[in-house]
Amino acid sequence: MPGLRGARGRAGRHLGRADHGRAPPPAVPPGLGPAGLVTCSLLKRVVAPRPETGARLGPADFLQRVLAPHLETGARLGPADFLQRVLVPRPETGARLAPVLTTRSSFTRVVVPGVGVLVSANVLNNRVARRLAPVTSAVAAGTLVALARRAGLTWQEMGFTDAARGAKIGGALAAAVAAVYTAGVLTPRTRPLFLDERALRLSRARLLEEVLVQVPLGTVLLEEVAFRGVLPAALRRSHGPVASVAGASALFGLWHVLPSLDMASANPSLGRLASGEGRSGRPGAGAVRLVAGSVAATGLAGVAFHELRRRGGLLAPSLLHLATNTLGYVAGRAARRLGRARRPGGQPVETTWKPSA
C-alpha cells in the first residue's frame, strides 16, 4: 500500500530529525533484571560527577555513609538516610560530605591519644627540657590538630574562627589586665605581691626570652589549642556540650599539678607551707592543699576561658592568657624599679605571686 509506506517514511524522517543532536541512551549490559538495572543506575549516580559540584564521591566517603551505624541508634542506614547522606551534597558548601565521625571514634581517636601527648609534653616541659618547651609545645599542638583533622573535626569546631571578634574581646581583656597590674604596682600595699625573685633574677635576655618565646609558644599555644580547641571539640561530639566544658577544664586543672609543685619548692612562704608547717601539722599536707587549690583554680579558669572561646574563637582566651603571663614579668620589673618593699629588719618581703604557668 503506497499510502501507508509513505506515511511510515514521513514518520521515520520526523523522528530522525527529533532525535538529531541527542546523546545515545547509555548502554546497559545485557541480561540484567530489574534489580541489576537499579544497581547500575545507583552506582552510576554515586560514581559519576555530581551535577552540583562536579566532584566525585571517593570510596572512603561512600563506604563510610553506607556502612557506618547511625550516631543515635547504632542501626544501619536506611534507604532514605542513604540517599540523604550519600547522594545529596552538603547544603552549606556544595562539597561532598565529610566522613561521619561516630561517638566512639571521636573519643578513642582524639581524646585518648591526645591526653597521652599532653602527659608527655607536660613531663618534658616541667622536668626534662624546660628551655625546649616552645619546641615541645609546638610539636604537641601540631600533633593534636592532626589527630583532630584526621578524625573529621572541622576548623570551626576547634575554634579557629571569628578572628576579628576574638581580637576585640581578647584585646579588651588584655588591656584590663594591664590596668589591674599597673594599679597593683603603683599601690605600695600591693606592690610586694609582684616582687617574685624567680622572675626578678632573670637577666634581660632571659626576660625577653620568657616574654617573647617561652610564654607565647611554650605555654599559651599548646594550652589553648589543647584545652580550648581540640579536646572540647572531640568531647562535644562524643558526650555533649556540658561534658566537653567540664572534661576539658578538669584536664586543664590537672595539667598544672607539676607547675604547682615547682611553685611550692621555689617560693619561700609556699615552701614552708608545703613542708608541713600548715594548720594540720602533718608533713606534706601543705603541698597537697597547694596542688589541690591550684588544680581547682585553674579548672575554674578553664571554664571562663572556654566561654571566651565560645564568644570569640581561640584568639580571645589566647590574648587574655598571653597578657596575664607576660605582663606579670613586666610588672615585677616595674615594681622593683619603684622600690622593693622591705621588712623592718631590712629583709626583702617574701611573696607568693608568680606568673601562672
Automatic annotation (TrEMBL):
Coiled-coil stretches: none
Ranges of residues in domain CAAX prenyl protease 2/Lysostaphin resistance protein A-like: 215-326
GO biological process, one term: proteolysis
Source superkingdom: Bacteria
Segments of skewed composition (Pro residues): 23-32
Key words of the record: Hydrolase, Metalloprotease, Protease
Hydrolase in keyword set: yes
Record GO terms (molecular function): endopeptidase activity; metallopeptidase activity
Region (Disordered), start-end ranges: 1-32
Pfam families attached to this UniProt entry: Rce1-like (PF02517)
InterPro entries: Rce1/LyrA-like_dom (IPR003675)
Protein name: CPBP family intramembrane metalloprotease
Organism for this UniProt entry: Sphaerisporangium album
Lineage summary: Bacteria, Bacillati, Actinomycetota, Actinomycetes, Streptosporangiales
